[in-house]
Design brief:
heterodimer, A: 118 residues, mainly beta, seven-stranded mixed β-sheet, B: 110 residues, six-stranded mixed β-sheet, three-stranded antiparallel β-sheet, 9 strands, globular
Chain lengths: 118, 110
């Protein structure tokens, strides 16, 4: 069974940093591209970032470019999102998702909540 | 990277059919055959219903179908059931290795 479990979400002050983790199981992690997607309270989903299977290529939404960094450790079946210079509008539930090889996020985790507030 | 446009809410009675629209542009919805739809019960993981505009993953009920015309994609749910009450999100590949989602639609089964 494919499983993705996010963790690391907490309450953090504006300007602070946070690292989210996503541990996966049930599939060959090192063969799949992975994404982070977020949902702010009362809003729709927003694509955040994507990394290829070996970690050599990354893409970011304009809203997080230069502040967030996606990474992965294929030996630990874990995807990360390093979030710096956090702002109130980064408050959201953050989901990791697997890409199926055809530009579609096919499996998702249940998300981890991040609140940026003083 | 403007969000795709979805109605905020739709409703229908059990057994009826409903359609949710998702409007973008020629840079996203209309430019690729890469629209996907997700069902999301709050607190749970989003579930893929439709990919590639109109393809259904194995295990997804054939009551869910996708279509597209120009820059507007649609999700139709036939034979509405109580368990279909959820949020529905569309997503499109937008080129240059970026993706764009819609604002989400809350489906109420009356």
């Amino acid at each position: 069974e494919v499983q993705l479990v996010e963790s690391g979400g907490i309450l953090v002050q504006p300007g602070g940093s946070l690292r989210l983790s996503c541990v996966v199981s049930g599939f060959n992690f090192r063969s799949f591209w992975m994404h982070w997607v977020r949902q702010a309270p009362g809003k729709g989903l927003e694509w955040v970032s994507r990394m290829n299977s070996d970690g050599s290529d990354t893409n970011y939404a304009d809203s997080v470019k230069g502040r967030f960094a996606i990474s992965r450790d294929n030996s630990k079946n874990t995807l990360y999102l390093q979030m710096n210079s956090l702002r109130a509008d980064d408050t959201a539930v953050y989901y990791c998702a697997r890409e199926d090889g055809d530009y579609t996020q096919d499996y998702w985790g249940q998300g981890t909540p991040v609140t940026v507030s003083s | 990277q403007s969000a795709l446009t979805q109605p905020a809410s739709v409703s229908g009675s059990p057994g009826q059919s409903i359609t949710i629209s998702c409007t973008g542009s020629s840079s996203d919805v209309g430019g690729w055959h890469l629209v996907s739809w997700y069902q999301h019960h709050p607190g749970s993981a989003p579930k893929l219903l439709i990919y590639g505009d109109n393809k259904r993953p194995s295990g997804v009920s054939n009551r869910f179908s996708g279509s597209k015309s120009g820059n507007t994609a649609s999700l139709t749910i036939s034979g509405l059931q109580a368990e279909d009450e959820a949020d529905y999100h569309c997503c499109s590949y937008a080129g240059y290795d970026t993706w764009v989602f819609g604002g989400g639609t809350k489906l109420t089964v009356l």
